[in-house]
Fold these 3 entries.
Entry 1:
Amino acid sequence: VNGEPHLGHAYEKVLTDVLAFSRKRSPLLEDHDIRVVLDETLKVSEERCLRQSVTVLRDYGNAGVVRVDKSHLRDAVERLIDNALDAMPAGGTLTVIADSETVNGAPYVRVRIKDTGEGIPAEKMDKIFEPFFTTRITRKATGLGLPIAKNIIEEEGGILRIASAEKAGTTVTLLFPDLQTA
């Protein structure tokens, strides 16, 4: 029947996301240069960025080393990048910045993923981490991308923050203890 394979793929995506959200991960924590992890993750989205006329800017400065499960972190960052690209269907700029921030006197590696997309309406900001809540109306939107990414980041010992303004884009900030300066 026409459309069945696509619909089957949509169900598979929902099931995969539900399992990813409910699964307790056992991270294999190892030291990684955050710049390498970001570059590897951005490589996965290169083709989609070209198709959507999204310019990718990188500014890694002297970002540090973090102790994370590399595959889990890549999964979380990939989900965040997918959200950013979903917010810019007609093009825009995706900026990935890695630098440092001091939190309560301790050094952290800070990663910011910024898009020039639609932004998130203020009245929806308090719901964005709720499972199955989405601001998008598409077949592939499960409403689990941000909750999964948040779970992964927190399981890795990190912090996730989001700032957004409607029509002005969104910035997702990830913070991890900086092992280079700790």
Entry 2:
Amino acid sequence: MNHLLPKATLLAFLLPAFASAQDQASTMARLCQKADVVVRATVTSSVHPTANLHQLTLQPNQVMKGQLGSSFTLTEPAGQCCGRSLFALSAGQTRILFLKRLGPTLHTLGGGRGVLAATPDLLTHVQALLAAPTTNAIGHLLAANVNHVEPRIADDAALALATLPNLSLTPLERSAVVNSLLQSVQRGWTRTAALADVAARLGDANMVDSVLPVYLDAVREDQALLLRNALKRCPTQLVATRMPAFVGNTRRSNLRAAALLTELPAATAQATMTNLLQRPSHPQVQMHLCEGLLAAGVSSASLSPMVPAAVLQLAVARQNRRPTFRNIQPLR
């Protein structure tokens, strides 16, 4: 028997898989908007009609969006691969599914992100997203969930907030974002990138004051780098002006301050770098601040009274060295 499908039929099965592979970064909020059908359903059978295909028959338990009959089928290429989300499901398992209609057939939307465990928390969250009447309402819902005990919800809420247009949060919601950001930095969670982006988008004085100490005290360099890049997107004059209030006396926080200030526009950061240079600090910190001030056009003669001669000489030498094509900056 010939189990090979005609090319047109095979493409009909493959193209949705390719599309879902491109949709892997979709958040639950985005999936709720894009899906034609959102349903909690139970698998009643799992078969391979050919060696190349995997097919599930499911019974809807709760249709939250769209319309379905008493049962429906989902088909995808067999095997475990990028963009495939049904291979691990078997009869008796229940999932929350985000589905897209392509012609007469239904396909999962968002790859693996569109097939969720049907836990009470996730079900409640999806229902709330579907019920939110406006983008602002969705934003308030997401902010309320950035500290959710279910990591899947907290991670997704942070990512969705970072991509939400016209972000507007209450003071209490801003505090929730900061608390989640602090916890994420302390534990090295991947949601730091999204939360740092949210902080940068809000970017007012209160947010800068909240993020600066988190950045200065971060233990891990990768987390600190995410926060430094976020702070560079905030109003630079505000960041430079508020920096001295949070630096303290530790070598790490002063190095972090110098790293950020030297990456801000010279005219904005010059006064703050001079302020920090006049404080007692580690020679390495002094050297970085001198480099930043030299790059801003301050003469070495002006810096000479503020730092040891050896530190200034090294800063001048580093400033005058020829640029290289290295794209990896070693730890200093």
Entry 3:
Amino acid sequence: MDRKKLVLLVAALIIAVGTALVARSMFAGAGAPQAEAAAQVEPQGPKVLVAQRALPVGTIITADAIGFQAWPAELVQDAYFLDGEADITKLLGTVVRHPITAGEPVTQGSLVAPGDRGFLAAALTPGMRAITVPVTAQSGVAGFVFPGDRVDMVLTQQVEGSEESSLKASETILRNLRVLATDQSTVSEKAEDGSTVVKAFSTVTLEVTPVIAEKVAVAQTIGTLSLSLRSLADNQSELERA
């Protein structure tokens, strides 16, 4: 290869490398501001009330179940709860009437409040029934049973022995019953410091199957019913077996 061709080849190689470096710097410079601008974009629009997790029918609304989130202004509907207009504390204790997926706005028609028609029916799991039993401070765990807790039911009855003696016996007849309400309250009352107020109550409303409702009705006629509070640490398989 003569000297002239070698010089032309080297020059072409230098030009190609230089062009590639210039193009790379141009694309990198153009991409960085766009990425930075994208990172600085914040959601616009009013904040609406959305579900923090999936809320099936019958879910009793608690403070950790709902929260406000920015929403596009053009998609906001009249049925939404807006931050600054809706009092979220008034929604605590209401019951989900229609299923709500996680992140979906909560509408006024999807909740039913205590005292409204159909409230207790909405709180029930499909196929279940509600039954109310009387309790005392002793049989009701001294007021430490709250809506949403799980309890076992204990029956105490007198067993006849000989003509001169008799004894009383207790046994757990039902397990893993969901508490729907204590008296007519479906939500725990909070003090000004945020602590839960423990109050005495005279009745407890439980969620049961139709067959269990019949058993409870009979059990009330033959003895005294007491509630035994279950641990929150019970895993799902234990609850299903119960």
